[in-house]
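Dissemination and training. As part of the outreach component of the grant, students in the summer workshop were shown how a complex can be specified as a set of sequence lines and then modelled as a single object. The example used during the hands-on session is reproduced here so that future cohorts can follow it. Participants entered these lines:
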Amino acid sequence: MVAAWKRIAVLVMALALGLAAAAPVFAKEDVIRIGAAVSLTGTYAREGQLTRDGYLFWVEKVNAAGGIRVGDKRYKVELIVYDDRSDPQTSVRLTTRLITEDNVNFIFGPYSSGITNATSAIGERYRVITIATTANAPELYERGYRYLFGTLPLATTYLYPVLEMAANLPNPPKKVAIITPDNLFAIAAAEGARQYAEQLGFEVVYFARYPADTTDVSSLLAAIRDAGAEVLLCTGFLQDGMLVVRQAKELRYNPAIMGFTVAASIPDFRINLGKDAEGIMGGEWWTPQMGWFDDFFGTASQYAAEFEARFGYTPTYHAASSSIGGYLLQLAIERAGTLDTEAVRQQLLKLDEVTMFGPVSFNEKGVNVASSAAGFQIQNGEIVVLWPPRISQGSMIYPKPAW
Amino acid sequence: MTQIVVNGLLTGGVYALVAVGFSLVWGVMNVVNIAHASYIMLGAYISYWLFHLYGWDPFLSIPVSMAALFVLGYLVASVVLNRVIRYGLVMTLVLTFGVDLILQNAALILWSADYRSITPSYAGASLAVGGVMIPYVRFAVFLLALVLVVLFSLFLSKTRTGNAIQATALNPFAAQLTGVRIDRIYALTYAIGAALAAAAGSMISVIYTIQPQVGNVFLTRAFVITVLGGLGSIPGALLGGVLLGLAESFATVTVGIGWSQAVSFGLLVLILVVRPQGLLGRRFFGGVG
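and obtained this result:
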């Protein structure tokens, strides 16, 4: 009698074990697992959360539509998110864990070129595709990596639209000054602007790299004024942008065009500087006002409205680029008809799409070469997109109003 | 050319004010006060919030931030710093580093890493004197820094308490024998140092963008200036600050802004080799030179 009970107990236990072992295998066949180690706390917490929400928005939308079609089957998407605490080492450890323990099929990149630089090496080693949505320092894509794709155009193109607008004026300015803080991303944008300016026929009369912790640029601006620069471009961050504007005003130096990268598109720039921000120009990867469109998300403004309804705030380019990263991966998987890394990679390389984020196509290095930043000007305290002409919302104020 | 000198002088004034409190604490107490960076930051935030919430002019909020940081400095010195001060430079360095970390991270949690700035209506306006631009705000900051430094050096030389501070700096043991309560003098000195940092912070909030790490940039400057001018020497801090401001300004237009820090640190090394006690320092001052 006792023996029989024992036998039944053993049987039940074996069954339970078998089921437990079988469960993950079963699940693996039905879902596509995507891992993302992004910064939810620390220095990059804000941008990291925007990136994460962008991923999440695509995941929820694609699952609501029934999932991704692979051959004849539909796969749901499961997103595994970890917090890398804005630390490259932590991000590397978490990415390794995503690949080796969570067995993800694909990786969505972290925020920032610096951290992506570290994590993409892990994806490369394990042959897992990384879709990097907020990392565009050119160095990242010059390492011969096969499994890294970046949705943002390169940082080098950031000020292209401002230069193009300047070159297309009836009476274009000639002398350009470019200044940049010592920072991977900012230097890339500045070097890109210098080359492009020369290509467009401008004379670069002043080019300077300043220490990232500089608190005073008055002498630098005095030197630039004396060099006769009519166009002043600065690739620094918010605090650099505000410092340059204030000290240029103090010196009463009035360039005809003042262009910034990240600084000018941040609302704080306009709020803090008030009317001193009038006429200042900048590059922007994406805003909801841009007239781009695709079949999945609809127009950029529809995307922004739906996103806001879900998360309670207006999406920035970080979020839009991250959502588009998911969509591009979806297209590549559907066209490949398999989850095989090599086949999906081939389809990513073949993509040639116009999306609500703008045109996308990847070159061999994984860089999105179809697009560049859009150009805008601050007019009456608002950002007005002016370039490229097909999404222009107004006309350029030139020269910039004097202080 | 004149513009370059003006720029250098104006920047130097801020540097001097940043360095005075730091130099004082180092000279009198032999403490390298890393937390100075946080006191600058807190001073800046006090001015920011008073401007932002109640519309106080940042120059009016200077006394408030000084008073608040005086109290905080006194507490830090009397509650923790005085207990470890006899264990020497390294222990106090670690301690002030810890205080700095706590304050900076508290600021990060409370106010986030967002960049903030004060933009009063007169920001960016300047006076033209024969083609040379003198920005009002920076000029006011420069004058105020001068006034504070002069007032403070009068306090040290003319008042009984000031003399007690100097006596403690020269020889704590002898000062104690003459009836000076050196633990109180230490707390007072440290509190004054924090208050001066707060004044500098309030002024920085008008001319620069602030965030919880804003003090760190100025701390490295304060370090250079203190060594340049001489430990604990008030005129030395002023001279060192102006010298550093001018050096950076000239380096920017001659060899390029990328070299400005190389020039200032080159200056530091040169002083250490040629005149290790600093330009206006005395050998016995601070008990370390």
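Strands of chain B lie at 126-129, 132-135. Students were then asked to discuss how this feature might be tested experimentally.
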